[in-house]
């Protein structure tokens, strides 16, 4: 789905020759992350031999539970191993508390920054029989906005006041804009080769709130538009659109089929992509990839789901699709396509699904049903 765009935007150094072994870091994190990341591992191990891929797996630590044990949510060792020894990685889920915990910050947010993973790419695609027609990719800037976590609290006239810095840079906005336009071009290329889609032509919708945040969101909007206008020979076939974020929420639920590629600052992209999961039945089926210039981490969009932890009913589809996205951004589109196809067949048949989709199957039963379709 995104390989050509990834190669162009990321300037990856991956060889087109199939290596003997790919080393994949496994970071289950918290809650059901420990149940779904093994599903991604099983999928990779079960890939048909025709692809010539072998895998080595490294188990790595991160998460709130790790923080409670060691006082560190993201050990330096985890980052070092990813940088020095891994070709890609899978991340499960994190149980970040909603209240302030001294010394704790989200490990996935920190990991994105330390690994330079500036884009979070989240496809939301309808499969017949599950959800409503939608075929959209949300491209979320991954390193700044309010997620820089620069906050302070002070008192004025006897009252507490909390402030948070929203940071939008020209550089980050330019990079995420380019990523979005390249993905739009690649999606169109796939359509022209016969791939199924709700869209006949490419479009990119830029999300902002510059009617209120004229400086910060204004810079994001203006910078992305400049990327589009900078290369009319390349991007001229793409329809450029804009939506104020609150209007986007309304239209996304009322007319989701009109959106092709959506690009947004960090906070808006996070909210929109989680909301969009409702269009396709469950957060349990929505995948993502955290992408940088030289690394990619597949990550399901669901949380740690403590209410179902340990019950064996967590939906593995989001992780399995995220595993395919990881391979795709690494340049291995054929095995990725095989995984996507097997998942789609499982969902269309709608016989072996977990309770979040109305089924009665276990996590492992869904994994096995997908594998048998390879």
UniProtKB/TrEMBL annotation:
Membrane-traversing stretches: none
Any one annotated GO CC term: mitochondrion
One MF term in the entry's GO annotations: NAD binding
Record-level GO BP terms: isocitrate metabolic process; lysine biosynthetic process; tricarboxylic acid cycle
Catalysis performed (reactions): (2R,3S)-homoisocitrate + NAD(+) = 2-oxoadipate + CO2 + NADH
Essential cofactor(s): Mg(2+)
Keyword annotations: Amino-acid biosynthesis, Lysine biosynthesis, Magnesium, Metal-binding, NAD, Oxidoreductase, Phosphoprotein
Domain Isopropylmalate dehydrogenase-like: 23-370
Pathway(s) served: Amino-acid biosynthesis; L-lysine biosynthesis via AAA pathway; L-alpha-aminoadipate from 2-oxoglutarate: step 4/5
Keyword Phosphoprotein: yes
SMART domains, A to Z: Iso_dh
One family name in Pfam for this protein: Iso_dh
InterPro entries named in the record: IsoCit/isopropylmalate_DH_CS, IsoPropMal-DH-like_dom
EC number: 1.1.1.87
Protein family: Belongs to the isocitrate and isopropylmalate dehydrogenases family.
PANTHER family for this protein: DECARBOXYLATING DEHYDROGENASES-ISOCITRATE, ISOPROPYLMALATE, TARTRATE, HOMOISOCITRATE DEHYDROGENASE, MITOCHONDRIAL
Name of the molecule in the record: homoisocitrate dehydrogenase
Organism: Eeniella nana (Yeast)
Encoding gene, per UniProt annotation: LYS12
């Amino acid at each position: 789905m995104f390989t050509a765009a990834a190669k162009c935007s990321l300037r990856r150094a991956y060889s087109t020759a199939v290596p003997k072994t790919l080393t994949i870091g496994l970071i289950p994190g918290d809650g059901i992350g420990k149940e779904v990341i093994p599903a991604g591992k099983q999928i990779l191990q079960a890939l048909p031999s025709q692809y010539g891929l072998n895998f080595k797996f490294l188990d790595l630590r991160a998460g709130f539970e790790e923080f409670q044990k060691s006082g560190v949510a993201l050990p330096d060792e985890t980052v070092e191993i990813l940088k020095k020894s891994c070709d890609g990685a899978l991340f499960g889920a994190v149980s970040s508390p909603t209240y302030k915990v001294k010394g704790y910050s989200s490990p996935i947010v920190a990991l994105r920054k330390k690994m330079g993973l500036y884009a979070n790419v989240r496809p939301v695609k309808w499969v017949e029989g599950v959800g409503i027609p939608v075929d959209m990719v949300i491209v979320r800037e991954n390193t700044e906005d309010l997620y820089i976590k620069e906050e302070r609290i002070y008192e004025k006239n006897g009252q507490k006041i909390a402030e948070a810095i929203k940071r939008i840079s020209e550089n980050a906005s330019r990079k995420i804009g380019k990523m979005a336009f390249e993905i739009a071009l690649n999606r169109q290329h796939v359509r022209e080769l016969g791939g199924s889609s709700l869209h006949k032509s490419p479009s990119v919708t830029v999300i902002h709130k510059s009617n209120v945040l004229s400086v910060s969101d204004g810079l994001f909007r203006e910078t992305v538009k400049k990327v589009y206008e900078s290369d009319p020979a390349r991007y001229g076939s793409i329809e450029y659109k804009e939506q104020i974020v609150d209007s986007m929420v309304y239209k996304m639920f009322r007319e989701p089929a009109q959106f092709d590629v959506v690009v947004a600052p960090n906070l808006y992209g996070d909210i929109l992509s989680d909301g969009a999961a409702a269009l396709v039945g469950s957060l349990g089926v929505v995948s993502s990839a955290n992408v940088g210039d030289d690394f990619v981490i597949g990550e399901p969009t669901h949380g740690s789901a403590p209410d179902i932890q340990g019950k064996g009913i967590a939906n593995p589809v989001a992780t399995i699709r995220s595993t395919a996205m990881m391979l795709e951004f690494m340049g291995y589109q054929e095995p990725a396509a095989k995984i996507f196809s097997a998942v789609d067949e499982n969902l269309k048949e709608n016989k072996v699904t977990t309770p979040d989709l109305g089924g009665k199957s276990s996590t492992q039963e869904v994994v096995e049903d997908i594998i048998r379709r390879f």
